[in-house]
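User: Hey, my collaborator sent me this sequence without any context and asked if I could get a structure. I don't really work with proteins. Can you help?
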Amino acid sequence: MAADLLRKSGFPQFTVGQTLAARDEFVLAMGTPASSQEANEAAASLVPLTIAYDDAELIHVPRRSFAVRELSADRVYWTVEADYGFDSRPLSAVRSTEQATSVASFAISNTSQQRYFSKAVVARYGAEVNAGNLIGVSRDGIRGVDVPVSRGEISRVAFLPSSQVTVEYVRTLQTLAGQATNLSSYMGFAQGELLFLGASGDRRPEGDWQVTFRFGVSVNETGITVAAPPGYDSLTGISKRGWEYLDVFYEDVEYETPIPLIAQAPLSATVHRVFDEVNFATALAIPSL
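Assistant: No problem. I've predicted the 3D structure and written it out in structure-token form, which is a compact way to encode the shape of the chain:
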């Protein structure tokens, strides 16, 4: 069930005094008639966990609670009222903490991967050995070569109310860590490109939690080719999502160049999904950026 959240005109409304609070109102469009539970679940994933207040310095105000009620008799449209604030935390303390707050970060590094065929042959020297794009072909098989490949990781910081960070919530994060990829587009990444790696949290003096979520990034691929020795068919047109596994079945073949060589020819390729697919906005309770 696809749902949309539309902010009402004139919101959010901030109250600035000894502390900082806000009230926000939305119209939740469910698309089809929905139950109260379905509307609440949709609101939980769509209503922002923080809203920005800027009086010359950006302050992220955490969500404390929200309430959902029917707007139309057909139960398609609902009103959502959300409450934001820092409880009794002084505004001066909010400002000093928020100035040092990081919302998101990323890191790009590399790891190694075994490659058995090149993207192109640049030149050959010496005796003509027609091995195509295969690397390290010998009488005993194909050795291949280790090459560096990029590896991305993204961290995202969210400020969660203490009512949300329960034992059950922590157990959910533990269950998903290293086991789940994004079921739909999330934080600008297409389905299957993010792997939830884990999270860490610290309770702040004002009572809410600062939680850091970590995601591994692996981009989706199309047009993959598994090369074959000359005289054998390569496998082409393969597509896989980022964290899916490409399993290739080979057979040993012998073919004549100036000397007989043993190589491996691909017979079939299978794309496996090895992780669960999860709606991160709902399961992690942090909406997409």
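In plain terms: Residues 102-289 form one domain. You can pass these tokens on to your collaborator as they are.
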